Amino acid sequence: MNVLIVDDDQTNLIIMAAVVRRVDDAEPITYSNPLEAARWLDANEPDLILLDQMMPDMDGLALLQRIRQNKRLDTVPVVIVTADTSAETRIRALDEGCSDFLTKPIIIPEVQARLRNLLALRQSRALLRDRAALLAEEVQRVTAALQRQGEELVLRLSCAAEYRDPETGAHLERMSRYSRLIAEAAGYDADFCNDLLKAAPMHDIGKIGIPDLILLKPGRLSEAELPIMRQHAVIGHRILADSDVPLLRMAAEIALSHHEKFDGSGYPNRLSGAAIPVTGRIVAVADVFDALTSTRPYKRSWSLEAARAYIEQNRGTHFDPVFVDAFLSRWDKVCEIHHAHLDDHLTDLHPMDF
Ligand SMILES: [Fe+2]
Ligand SMILES: [Fe+2]
C-alpha cells in the first residue's frame, strides 16, 4: 500500500519513510514540496497521506482542503503531523476531513500502530467497495439473462403457435411493428413500446387450443363454431397468465383483450373504453388492419387504402380513437412496414394441406 509523506524537512521525511517501511506492505512516496505533492495527487491515489502542518507555499491544512475537493481521493485517510496541539487547529483539521493527528515529536511505535490501523481500515473499505461493485455487476448480469430468457420463451411460444395457425409469420412481424408504431406515436416510453413489439406476436397463441376443423376451416364460421373460435382469447390468457416474466404478463393481457371493442361489443368480456387494457386497444388496431391487408386461405387481401378506410370508419366503435389517430399519424411508416414484410408462404398453407 502506498503512503504519501509530505514534509518540507528532509530529515523528517527520511525518518517517516523508514517508519512506514516497517509497516507490513507499506511503501513510502515522499515529497518535500507540497505543490509537487499536489500535482502528483492529480494523477495518483495513495492509500494513506501523512501531511506536515507547517510548510512554506502551502501548509498541511491547505493541501488537505485541496485533497478533499477531489472526489477521487475522498476515501483516502489523511493524517496531519503537527507540533501545534491547540484544540482550534485540531477542530479545523477535523472539519476539513482529516482522519487522525500525529504530534511532533513523533513516537515511532505510536505512528506505526496508527498507520497499521488506518491502512487496515482502508483495505477493508476497498474490499467492501469491490464486493459491492461485483454484486451490482452480478445482479445486472442475472437480470439481463432473465430478460433474454423471457424473450426467448416468447419467441418459442410464438413459433409453436405459428405451426398451427394459418396466419403467416409475416402477419406477426407486421402487426407487432404496427403495435409499436402506434404506442410510439401515442407517446409511450421506449421500454413499453419495445415490450409491446415482443409481446404482440402472442396475441393468438390460444389458437393452439382450437380444434383443427374450426381453426383451419376455409370458409366463414357458423353460429355454432364462432363461440368456440372466440375461446382463443381466454385460452391464450390461461397459457400466459400469472407469469413472473413481465413480458409474458403483457402478452397474457394482450391475448385476453385484443378482441374487445371500444364500444363494449367485443369479446370475451365485453369491456369498453378505458376498461380495455391499453395494450389490447393498440393491438386491436394493428391486428385488424393487418388481417385485412393480408392474404388468407379464405380471402383476398384488401388494399391499404380500403383497410385504412375501415379503421377510420370504426374509430370510436371498434377502435379507441386515440390509437386510430396515432396509427394514421404514421401512415407513411405503416405503408413502409407493410411493403417490407410481405407474406411468406412458410406456414400459409391451404387448409387442405393439413
Ligand atoms: Fe385473435
Ligand atoms: Fe392476428
UniProtKB/TrEMBL annotation:
GO terms for molecular function: phosphoric diester hydrolase activity. The keyword Nucleotide-binding does not apply. It comes from the Bacteria. One of its GO terms (biological process) is phosphorelay signal transduction system. It holds the Pfam family Response_reg. Residues 146-343 form the HD-GYP domain. Keywords: Phosphoprotein. Coiled coil: none annotated. InterPro entries: CheY-like_superfamily, Cyclic_di-GMP/3'3'-cGAMP_PDE, HD/PDEase_dom, HD_GYP_dom, Sig_transdc_resp-reg_receiver. The modification 4-aspartylphosphate is found at D52. Residues 2-119 form the Response regulatory domain. PANTHER family: CYCLIC DI-GMP PHOSPHODIESTERASE TM_0186 (PTHR45228:SF1), CYCLIC DI-GMP PHOSPHODIESTERASE TM_0186-RELATED (PTHR45228). This is Response regulator. It comes from Azospirillum cavernae.
